[in-house]
Design a protein that fits this description.
It comes from Gadus morhua (Atlantic cod). Its main location: cytoplasm. The chain has about 1050 residues and is α+β, with helices and mostly antiparallel strands. The protein has 38 helices and 16 strands. Helix 22 (about 555-575) runs antiparallel to helix 23 and helix 24 (about 620-650) runs parallel beside helix 27 (about 700-745). The relative contact order is 0.04.
């Protein structure tokens, strides 16, 4: 195996590491001694004791290293000979002394921690485990096995003496025992020796009654009881064993081992957790652990310019591990030793900070758990003190050791962090009861170093003669040195000279503030603010620096006015050159113009001014924020006015399309500006200001003041956006009205189909809406659709109302209804436009109902009128005008409607004698469905308000006629008068669809045509129906008014005439009058 190359060691570094022998740890070499004598004493007193300790560790090493590579004794000897300046004769002499020393007692420190999953040997299913531990030579174990009459499970009990057997405690009733017991087992040599551990189950003698009781509670243990009866009385049960060859073990082992069986009955017997470590007893000690570590870090000096990160050579790592293990050193003591060595190494070598931080953290962690021995406490205290003093010495000379370079400055920061961490350690605070103010010590070190540096520079730049030119030149050189130092290091010169200069300068400017002077002071303010942010370089008693902003109060209004006027000028220039065209078209369009982008850029300096000022006083900062917010809002309002003027200038000589395009761009600009205003609180960091002013400004005052300013500006923007959108909407509405009027003029109604007449309007709308969608941002396009739809509905409603008496109104209404449906589809745009809920407003529903009614023929209107009357009859429950009872059915066999008038009750008295002469008229409506059916009448019943008729009538009508829309039986009760027209008692309406035999409730209703005659052989029984009599309300029906307007249709006029006559005879009209 190759040996790592080791450089020649500079012996002066050993003093820096603090390597001291055990015989004279505190003796220091005198500086005035002869160098050769000093080297000889250093070698005799420090190096040779350490060398002997290394040889002793190698000669008596036990086990393999726990981690890393394994090296032979020869390799280790070669390594330490190269690490130390020892000749071959010196090596042999020291080796002879080591071999003549009393050897240590070899020991194996075994920690039995726990076991898991062991066998249950008791009736209860658990065991009472304990362990037997010993170290046996292979020959003794063989003799013990051969001396037995028959194979037995026990080895430790038979082969070892009782005094060499170690036993753990018994853990009762468990399968997962935990011991954590430590045993130290001595042995003579690792060759031919093994570590033995046997686990047994302790059995106590139980009475028969106890065993029977266990049998009751656990019947499955019967087999276990039979087995117990066969074994020797009081004998323990074997659970398993572990055998480990000592020569195969590492110097430290911490593992789980499987419990092995003696037989194959139960191969799986669980696991046992052991910690094994080879240690020495009665060892000859020459040096401390702290001194022992140092030589193994010396080879790292070959890595010049590279910070050491804690790595060590394989040989050194192995020797350290063997030494720590042999002396049974806890991790805490090892960490303290490493810290002592590493901290001394830091004084001579560049060490990575993580190495020191790791040891500090580990020491702090273990300090809370245990305290080290007294000697190590002293070493730790001296080491921490020494490192602090060394660190402060480096800080005082930081200009030379840590120049302001990217590589050196982080090293200074790291050193300060380590010093801070040391002072925070509990160990340092306990070992150093005297107060140690690190901040004061660092300040004193910096001040002392600054004074020394200045004295040195002053001495270097002393004039050689007393000539004035040379004196001025020397002063200039010294001033340049100081200026460069102030620039790079921000040292105490900031405080020494700057405060007085400020005081004198502002005294000269008092009462003379003007714009140019205020502008020149702004860079001064920024510089002082930068210095103020670094609190470490300010004197607490220097108000010129700590309250520097007070000196600039007079200049602050000039700064704000300059920012406002500069921004406003930029906005005006941006609008003047804006052509009001979209910035970018295509797949990713930018729909606003150049001035909107320029405005955002122009407003940014105001936000940046707030960041630059960072005004320290919170209350004044709030007033400053109010002013800045007000300025931004004023600029926004001014921009709106400038933009409107720009539109007027550019649209004077342009056509309609260009003007609309520019108007769309203006709307997009305003919308973009509104989004900028929404982000203003974030850009100005209102939340941060709110936290700063929480104790001086109330929440309500803060929100009301700033939010109201913002809302006011947003309101102006929304008003201008609505105004521009209204302008676009008005233009579109005018064009829509023109198209609607053009397609509904009288001369066009018969000339074109409905689709052809509506076509130009839909083409126009599709073109315009597509254009607006492409040129408006989505928010504004959506907001414009709603008023445009509302105005379109109003336009159609106005046109429909103006032509209500137009001849040919039905065709006209059909065209308008089709137009309304097309507009609805256009504005809905298959779900991409307005939602149906927004489209179907109350005005829309009223218009659609009106046009639907007007688009119907007179016959359809009469049918709808009768259906409405039937509906009123079905919900009419009062009998204030009396009632009539019928027995009615339809015979499909002979197509006859059979009606039997039974009686009438509670009729109104129409004659002067307080009675009436009632009779009943039966008619089938509408007339165009039943043209050949005559009206039938009952006999007159004189002087009777509750007449009994019992008269039957038959109407020859088809089933199709009875099922026609609006088909109904009209029952009219009249009072007979000889001299005048009969008086009206009331009327009732019965839908023929509800009549038995027409409704199709039986099997005959669903019979096929071929079986119709057979199915109708059994007639449906008639139904008795009581119908309350109703009186119509005069002039209350819109259908009658619509029919009345159709003068040229004779049937419609006849129907209206009949209904009007009934309205005149109605008692409802008399009550209203």
């Amino acid at each position: 195996m190759d040996v790592h190359p080791v450089p020649t060691i500079d012996l002066r570094l050993l003093r820096g590491f603090g390597v001291k022998s055990k015989s004279d740890c505190s003796q220091d070499l005198q500086d005035d001694e002869d160098p050769e004598e000093k080297e000889r004493k250093h070698k005799e007193l420090e190096l040779k004791p350490l060398y002997r300790e290394l040889l002793y560790t190698i000669v008596h090493k036990l086990g393999k290293p726990a981690s890393g590579e394994t090296f032979s004794d020869g390799q280790l000897h070669s390594y330490i000979r190269e690490a130390f300046p020892m000749s071959q004769s010196e090596h042999d002499s020291l080796m002879e002394k080591v071999r003549s020393c009393e050897p240590p007692v070899y020991c194996l420190m075994a920690t039995v921690k726990e076991a898991k999953g062991i066998l249950g040997k008791d009736i209860s299913g658990f065991s009472d485990p304990y362990c037997l531990l010993t170290i046996l030579e292979d020959e003794k174990e063989s003799r013990a096995r051969s001396s037995r009459a028959k194979p037995r499970k026990s080895v430790v009990k038979d082969a070892a003496a009782d005094e060499s057997i170690y036993r753990t405690e018994i853990k009762w009733q468990t399968l997962n025992p935990v011991w954590n017991e430590i045993f130290i087992l001595e042995f003579e040599d690792t060759e031919g020796a093994s570590f033995h551990l046997e686990m047994w189950d302790r059995d106590e003698q139980l009475s028969l009654a106890q065993k029977l009781e266990d049998l009751k509670t656990n019947f499955n243990s019967l087999r276990r009881m039979i087995k117990d009866a066969k074994k020797e009385k009081g004998a323990d049960d074997f659970l398993g064993f572990i055998v480990l060859k000592l020569r195969d073990l590492r110097c430290t082992e911490d593992s789980w081992y499987e419990l092995e069986p003696r037989t194959e009955t139960y191969p799986d017997r669980g696991r046992c957790h052991l910690n094994l470590k080879f240690i020495h007893k009665e060892r000859c000690l020459y040096v401390t652990f702290c001194s022992f570590q140092n030589p193994f870090m010396l080879p790292l000096l070959s890595q010049e310019g590279v910070p050491w990160k804690g790595e060590m050579s394989g040989e050194g790592q192995m020797l350290l591990e063997l030494y720590a293990t042999q002396n049974n050193l806890p991790l805490f003591q090892q960490d303290i030793g490493k810290w002592v060595a590493y901290s001394k190494l830091y004084q001579s070598l560049e060490v990575d900070s993580s190495v020191l931080f790791q040891q500090i953290t580990s020491i702090e962690y273990h300090w809370h758990q245990q305290e080290p021995p007294h000697q190590q406490k002293q070493e730790l205290r001296d080491s921490l003190h020494g490192f602090l003093r060394h660190g402060l010495d480096l800080v005082s000379k930081y200009r030379d050791i840590f120049p302001p370079t990217p590589k050196a400055t982080p090293r200074l920061h790291t050193l300060l962090r380590i010093l801070v961490q040391i002072c925070k350690m509990k160990a340092f605070q306990k070992l150093n009861p005297a107060d140690f103010e690190l901040q004061a010590e660092v300040r004193a070190a910096v001040l002392e170093g600054t004074e020394d540096w200045f004295k040195t520079k002053k001495g270097l730049h002393q004039p050689m003669t007393k000539e004035l030119a040379e004196i001025v030149g020397a002063l200039a050189h010294l001033t340049n040195e100081v200026q460069e130092d102030v620039k790079n290091c921000k040292t105490v010169y900031n405080r020494v000279f700057l405060a007085e200069e400020l005081r004198v300068s502002f005294l000269l400017m008092e009462g003379l503030m003007e714009p140019a002077l205020a502008s020149s002071l702004f860079p001064v303010y920024l510089s002082l603010q930068s210095i103020h942010k670094d609190k470490a370089f300010l004197q607490k008693r220097s108000p010129e620096l700590t309250d520097f902003h007070e000196r600039f109060r007079d200049a602050l209004p000039y700064w704000l006015n300059k920012a406002f006027s500069t921004t406003l000028d930029r906005v005006e220039r941006a609008v003047q050159v804006d052509q009001l065209k979209p910035l970018q078209t295509g797949s990713v369009p930018i729909k606003h113009s150049s001035s909107a982008v320029d405005l955002v850029t122009c407003v940014q300096p105001i936000c940046r001014l707030w960041e630059q000022l960072s005004w320290p006083d919170p209350e004044e900062g709030f007033m400053l924020m109010v002013k800045l917010t007000e300025d931004v809002c004023r600029i926004v309002v001014t921009y709106c006015q400038l933009l409107k003027g720009r539109v007027r200038v550019l649209s004077e000589d342009s056509d309609h399309g260009v003007a609309v395009n520019m108007l769309c761009v203006v709307v997009n600009d305003l919308e973009h500006l509104r989004s900028v205003l929404t982000r203003l609180p974030t850009q100005l960091n209102w939340a941060g200001l709110r936290e700063r002013t929480n104790h001086v400004i109330a929440e309500s005052q803060f929100s009301n003041t700033l939010d109201s300013q913002l809302r006011q500006a947003q309101g102006v923007l929304e008003k201008e956006i609505r105004s521009a959108l209204d302008t676009l909407s008005r233009q579109l509405n005018t064009d829509i009205e023109t198209h609607v009027k053009s397609m509904t003029t009288r001369r066009r109604i018969p000339s074109k189909s409905t689709e052809d007449a509506v076509g130009p309007l839909m083409v126009f709308l599709e073109r315009e809406l597509t254009y607006l969608n492409e040129n408006l941002v989505q928010e504004n396009f959506n907001s414009m659709l709603t008023p445009l739809w509302t105005n379109s509905v109003k336009s159609l409603h106005q046109v429909a109302s103006q032509h209500s008496q137009l001849e040919g109104l039905m065709v006209f209404a059909q065209r308008l209804l089709y137009t309304l449906e097309c507009l609805e589809q256009c504005f809905h745009a298959e779900g991409n436009g307005l939602p149906l809920l927004a489209l179907q407003s109350e005005e829309y529903k009223a218009l659609k109902a009106h046009l639907t009614s007007n688009s119907l023929s007179s016959q359809q209107l009469i049918e709808r009128f009768l259906e409405r009357k039937v509906t009123q009859q079905n919900v009419y429950g009062a009998e204030r005008y009396g009632a009539v009872t019928l027995l009615i059915s339809y015979r499909r066999s002979d197509h006859r409607l059979c009606v039997e008038v039974l009686n009438a009750v509670n009729l109104l008295p129409m004659d002067s004698n307080g009675f009436s002469d009632p009779f009943v008229e039966l008619s089938l409506e509408p007339v165009h469905v039943f043209p050949e059916v005559e009206t039938r009448r009952t006999q007159i019943r004189y002087c009777d308000l509750n007449p009994l008729f019992d008269e039957a009538f038959e109407f020859l009508v088809s089933l199709e006629q009875c099922r026609a829309p609006g088909a109904c039986l009209v029952v009219t009760v009249l009072d007979y008068d000889k001299m005048t027209r009969d008086d009206f008692e009331g009327e009732a309406f019965l839908a023929l669809k509800a009549v038995p035999g027409v409704a199709g409730g039986g099997e005959e209703a669903v019979a096929p045509p071929a079986q119709e005659e057979f199915s109708f052989s059994v007639n449906t029984p008639p139904a008795q129906i009581r119908l309350p009599l109703m009186h119509p309300k005069p002039n209350d029906d819109s259908i009658l008014k619509l029919l009345e307007s159709r003068k040229g249709e004779r049937d419609a006029q006849a129907f209206v005439k009949t209904r009007r006559r009934r309205e005149k005879q109605s008692q409802e009209g008399l009550q209203q009058s």
